[in-house]
Amino acid sequence: MNGVQKQGAGDVPMAPLRLDAGLRQALKRPAPSASTPAELPSRDVLTLPEPVYPSRPALLDANYRSTVEPYGSPGKRRWPAPLLVKATRSWLFPYVKSRVLPGDFHPLIPYLFTEFKCNIDCHYCWSFDNRVKGMTEDTARRAIDWLHDTGCRLLALMGGEVLLRPAFVHKVVYYAAKKGFWIYVPTNGRLMKPDVIDRLADAGVAVVNLAVDVVEEKPGLPKALAPIRANYEHLIRKQYRYGYMVFFNINICRTNLEDVKQLTEIARGDRIATDYHINESPMMEQPQFRHLDENSTYITEQDWPRVDEVVDWLIERNRAGYQMVNSVARLNDMKAFMRGRLEPWNCRAGQNSLIVRTDGTLAPCFPMYTATHDWGTVGEPRFERAQLNEMKPVCQRNCFSTLNHNLGYCYNDARVIRWLFKRAAHGFGSGARSFD
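User: That's the sequence. What structure does it adopt?
Assistant: Structure tokens below.
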């Protein structure tokens, strides 16, 4: 059992922590090799350059190429050579280097937590804390420069809500894009005003991950499409002008199963991709989390047949050609996970993925954000193969990280080559697809 199906009083699910107590305790202690707690070295304070905006003023003109946008239209997306070159430099080249260069640590997908605060309270979400100060420009610049030096060319911003400080995010995207990074920005959309969209698009954002769980807001599920509909329509319209992609990020809960289907069909109609998660309770203590017990969003054993039906429906749509980030195999794994039967899945956390906390300290993955184990700081990583190998057999059976699973699944030469040939056969114009 993964801990999300047990029931409490009144048939409201209760969720114990998913990691066993021994591992949780070990991760709350500093690493034996660390003589002092991880801290960023004291140096001159750096700042991020002020973005030039608009850097492409013609794209702000409402009449600019109104009939034929540079990157296609809802009917047919185009991938010009410069965009393909950028994607190759951001994804393929770093991957190849990670396969041929010595050592275990080759960041491909780093997650930069610019915020740990959020402007809404989704009852399933333990990954925010409104007591934590946001990342400084100094830490952001040092992190980007260090990741660039490692050969990484991809940057995923994370929160909390990333757009709480839109001017700061604009600076981060602008600076990282100038250094050749492929940039991913997630948001719940409440602060995604048209001007913010235009600024981030102009600065060079590559993907916007729009987290929505329901069409109309429900108790405990405020990430709804209806309140942000105008912003959303601006977002999907401008993607064909600036060249970024959009996808829905949907968390499957016991209270939104019909909404999952509706959002999938909306995404299909708007020709954007979807990415699915299965609801999880925390793996470790999260002192800021207020909804651990009696949480209406957690899946109970009685809900398994209904969740199975939705997952099977998603698999049918995936096979029918709907754009989905999840593979069919991973969608099927959702059923095993909620029954506590998930098998290890080649987690690459601490090797090819990592998180940079708001203070510049490092951790291998999201669930370990509150761990005090010393994995180092920006510029001085301390990930150790032995420690990761000891941790992961337990973690992988209790974690359904879509992002890290996608990395582990495609960290395979045969799959990468096969995927490239399939995409080339379609002119690289089919949008986001899984590695099936």
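The chain has one domain: 18-36+69-425.
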